[in-house]
Amino acid sequence: MIYIDNRQDKILVDEDFEKKVEEVIRFALFEEGVNRECEISVIFIDNSQIREINKETRNIDKETDVLSFPMLDYPKGKVYKDVYKNYNFQASYMNEGELVLGDIVLSLEKTQEQSNEYSHSYLREACYLVVHSVLHLLGYDHMEEEEKKIMREREEVILNKLSITR
Predict the structure, then answer these.
(1) pTM recorded for the entire structure
(2) How many domains, the chain?
(3) Span of the secretion signal (predicted)?
C-alpha cells in the first residue's frame, strides 16, 4: 500500500501526479526484487517544512529535496535484495500483513526549483527523487563513492525502463 499525503499548497498535486508517483514506486520495488506486499508513506511538503524536518532529524539547518526514513536496518554495503528478499519478518515490521518499508518526505517546491535548475521537466525531477528515495528505503546509500556509483546506476536503469529521461 502506498499512502500519499499532500501537506503543502505551493505546487498543484492532481490525481495524475499521484498515480505517476505510485507507478514509479511500484516499478522501483519490482526492479529491486521486492516480491511481497509492503507499505510506503509519501508526504509532499514545501521548503520550509523540509528544512524543519532536516534540522530535527539530521541537524542540518537547510532545505533539501527529499528525505527517506527506512524502517529496516541493512548491513553496510547490503540492500534489500541481498538481505531480506526471502526473509521472514517479525510482526514488528508488519502492518496488517504488509512489510513497512518507511517514509518518503518530498519537497515539491524544491523539486520545481531543481527541475528548472537542471533544465528538465518537473515530472522527471519528481520521479527521479521518488526512485532515489525508494532506493534509500531499500538500503542504498551514496555517502561513499562506490556506493554512490551503484545507486546512480540503479536510478538510471529504473528511470530508463520507465522511459523517464532528461
Answers:
(1) 0.92
(2) 1
(3) none
